[in-house]
Amino acid sequence: AQKITQTQPGMFVQEKEAVTLDCTYDTSDQSYGLFWYKQPSSGEMIFLIYQGSYDEQNATEGRYSLNFQKARKSANLVISASQLGDSAMYFCAMREPFQGGKLIFGQGTELSVKP
Amino acid sequence: DTAVSQTPKYLVTQMGNDKSIKCEQNLGHDTMYWYKQDSKKFLKIMFSYNNKELIINETVPNRFSPKSPDKAHLNLHINSLELGDSAVYFCASSRGRAGTEAFFGQGTRLTVV
Q1: How far apart are CA B31 and CA B12, in angstroms?
Q2: Which of B32, B104, B106, B109 would best serve as a mutation to test chain A binding (most A beta carbons within 10 A)?
């Protein structure tokens, strides 16, 4: 069963606007971690933001925020004030306890920022 | 002062050859990983080491052998390369198995011809 689902293969956003990238997950564990990564065309994987399952506040890092809705099992990434440099592939990932620390990744969403 | 560095960045080789990819992290992390990204950009765990001990081997062919000489290094050796091994291989590290961060190297694009 797919554990991490990103339903938007591609997204477009106008520069300076906000955009939400969707991510839903499936786990029966109470303790888990959710991650977002950015992969630009140069290929590296850039860590953006982390949300723990017990964190009551939504995580924020600069222009990135994670809209964590535990009951709905969703962990959407919100990018505010999009910039051209935000054009990239974005991956949602989950880490479950007792799984050796491995990350399980979604399929990714390709974001294109239009000038 | 790259946190997780892997070499080489590109590797082109013929079928049947043996090759190695090296990874080093200077973050003081105790857990390191190898991930494979296929042509559709899907990322999947291959191996995980914690303090030099193998803790995950995710049904990877025996031709792939990770080696961790110390907790700052995790190398990947691949024997008898096949066309299907062509992919991008990422090394990553984290503090423990439940850390709040996991950092990746820049990736090694392996092309088998």
Answers
A1: 28
A2: B104
Q: What is the CA angle A83-A84-A88, rounded to 5? A: 105
How far apart are alpha carbons A37 and A93 in whole angstroms? 8
CA distance B50 to B70: 10
Q: Is A31 helix (H, G, I), strand (E, B) or coil?
A: coil
Please tell me the distance in Å from B22's CA to the nearest CA on chain A: 16
For B48-106, how does the pLDDT look when each residue is reduced to its tens digit (9 = 90+)? 998 888 988 888 899 999 999 998 999 999 999 999 999 999 999 998 777 778 899 99
Report whether A30 contacts A38 (CB < 8 A). Answer: no
3-state helix, strand, coil in chain A (%, to 5): 5, 50, 50
Tell me if chain B has a CB within 8 Å of the CB of A11. no
When CB atoms are compared, the residue of A43, A47, A101 closest to B107 is A43
